[in-house]
Design goal:
Blueprint: H1 5-19, E1 24-29, H2 37-49, E2 53-59, H3 63-72, E3 79-83, H4 91-100, E4 103-107, H5 119-128, H6 132-142, E5 146-147, H7 154-161, H8 170-177
Parallel strand pairs: 1-2, 2-3, 3-4, 4-5
Amino acid sequence: ADLGYEATLAAFETSLSKLGLDYLDLYLIHWPVEGKYKEAWRALETLYKEGRIKAIGVSNFQIHHLEDLMTAAEIKPMINQVEFHPRLTQKELIRYCQNQGIQMEAWSPLMQGQLLDHPVLADIAQTYNKSVAQIILRWDLQHGIITIPKSTKEHRIKENASVFDFELTQDDMNRIDALNENLRVGPDPDNFDF
């Protein structure tokens, strides 16, 4: 909610104070609120130039949001964090960000648990003797996507981190890619109201 130049600077100071830190590693604009995100970005650029943030980025920005932002930006976003999972693969956005040198990061990579019993994913998981969650997270990584699964259960957190001892074949990557339905579990960045 804290968009605009001064509001973003104030929100940053509040975040630092609450965290008890002198700087942040990463700070993102959460939503592309029309008429506000360019000023918020200008504030992030200021904080980045001052060394108070090590990396700046955006969240939920589509291609047209990024193009609009970069018409006024001095610094290109370093990260674009978006909803990304096998039923929302966002191929054009990934390609655009890769071409622009913007790192993609996935939120809701497991589609809030809705994919954990998907038959195609379960079949692939059985082949590798892994969980469906591990298969999805590995798929993210092989696409070059940073992924941030959410869990409060210790055994799941450990399981989610254990995805570096195998690699999916190209055929299995293609099978997972084919599950795309452009289906969101979160708000659409082009049609949200909050």
